[in-house]
Amino acid sequence: MDARQARRLHEERLMALANVSGVGTGRDEDSGEEVIVVFVTRKLPREGLRPEDVVPDELEGIPVRVLAMADPEGPEGR
Predict the structure, then answer these.
(1) Does pTM surpass 0.70?
(2) Secondary structure of residue 60 in the 3-state scheme
(3) What is the DSSP letter of 31?
(4) Is the pLDDT of residue 56 over 90?
(5) Closest by alpha carbon to 18, among 54, 56, 64, 59?
(6) For residue 51, what is the DSSP state?
(7) Which of 21, 34, 47, 77 suits a disulfide with 72, CB 3.0-4.6 Å?
(8) Long-range contacts of 68-77 (CB under 8 A, 24+ apart)
């Protein structure tokens, strides 16, 4: 299974998690391997999340990366 297939399989569940604003695929900057990318409004420590809202480290053997998106209404977006 490749990253796109794994993303499609799990996208609905990932989008239901707290702070998740999008899901995609890409390549890890260091290793070049395919990854699932989960975009969040802000990155929080795992211990600050409910267990059911933690983004998994991998899905179907594909690594998952979490990227925080800047708030377009915040100071950076103006």
Answers:
(1) yes
(2) coil
(3) T
(4) yes
(5) 54
(6) G
(7) 77
(8) 68/39, 68/40, 68/41, 68/42, 68/43, 69/21, 69/22, 69/39, 69/40, 69/41, 71/41, 71/42
